[in-house]
Amino acid sequence: HYFRIMLYHVCHVFFSEQEKLVKASNRQDEIFYRFIKDVNDDFYQHRQIKYYADKASLTPKYFSKIIFDVSGKKASEWIDDYVILEAKTLLKNTSQTIQQISDKLNFSNQSHFSRFFTSHNGVSPSEYRLG
For residue 1, is pLDDT > 60? Predict the structure, then answer.
């Protein structure tokens, strides 16, 4: 739990500082920093680029291009990174079952969560928890 608290504190500080910088930056940077804030707030429920593009009033294709141009990383990778980091935190720092973690992260079922986790980490959630 301490790691999670520290992570949330770091994110809060990061976003506070970024809001100050965004005022002086260009429109693409504003869209990117808003996207990161929105992902931080909504990744539990929303993992589709269309959701974040709609929030920015942009098409998913154009939105994705902006995120990639600003960060060098796909929007889907940013979203997946948040989900994976939270999954790792929950696996290592809680006694929740993999099913409970899958439900918390809004996966349709445990099997889908396990495939997602394994494809990003090379090990299953159970193996990660034991390792």
Answer: no
